[in-house]
Amino acid sequence: MSFTPPPADCLKCERLCAFRKENKKKYPSYHNAPVPSFGDLNAEILIVGLAPGLNGANQTGRPFTNDYAGDILYQALKENNLAKGVYKKIKNDGYELINTRITNAVRCVPPQNKPTTDEEKTCRTFLKEEIAAMPHLKVILCLGTVSHKNVLQALGLKQSYAKFSHGAVHELPYHIKLVDSYHTSRYNINTGVLSYQMFDDVIKKIKRLL
User: Fold this and answer.
1) Which of 33, 60, 108, 204 sits CB 3.0–4.6 Å from 16 for a disulfide?
2) Does 26 fall in a domain?
3) Is residue 41 a part of any domain in this protein?
4) Cβ contacts of residue 60 below 8 Å, gap of 6+?
5) What is the domain range of residue 151?
6) Is residue 27 part of a domain?
7) For the chain, what is the largest distance between any 2 Cα atoms, rounded to a whole number of angstroms?
């Protein structure tokens, strides 16, 4: 199955479109469009975040790039041989993922980093199609509860099917395992909800599952 990402001028969510227009005026050099996924569709691992950050992925056009959450994520991936190159916080830095693909539940930056339930539902079509287009997918890593919820719904599963818990591994249909982690946000790191070692342990667990 092929996967068609949302177009640069996607008009599906009125509020997000209006926010994009505002940002194009404020930050004309930014990407300011749905952020495409990073990595190969043939990968065995899919990492799903929440949504692009205003000055992160919305600026650079690559998930988790140029924000604190990406600093944690991309370091852990490289240290566990799931990436190579030097992460320089820009899209064309030569940093490459290995057997891994990264996307977000919502593809456009939302105001206050909080998409609405309707926006999640609208964008979930792309997540559903993307998952279906990954023929070798074995593990989905959900960063946070919003990602967890949307992945389950994209697969047609109820929330009661798998409860979010950091480090948990859930067996899903189609021989896919869902792994949960707290989001690698600055807030979670600064408040001690998540440490680098805790996240690194989750990445190591995923490698063992493969």
Assistant:
1) 108
2) no
3) yes
4) 31, 66, 89, 90, 91
5) 34-209
6) no
7) 46
Distance, CA of 70 to CA of 169 (rounded, Å): 23
Q: What is the tally of structural domains in the chain?
A: 1
Place of tokens 């068609």: 4
16 occurs within a structural domain: no
pLDDT tens, residue by residue, 87-133: 999 999 999 999 999 999 999 999 999 999 999 999 999 999 999 99
Q: What is the pTM of this model?
A: 0.97
- Pairing between strand 176-181 and 169-172? antiparallel
User: Is the CA virtual torsion 138, 125, 54, 41 positive or negative?
Assistant: positive
Burial of 14 per CB tally in 10 Å (0-12, 13-18, 19+): exposed
pLDDT tens digits, 62-77: 999 999 999 999 999 9
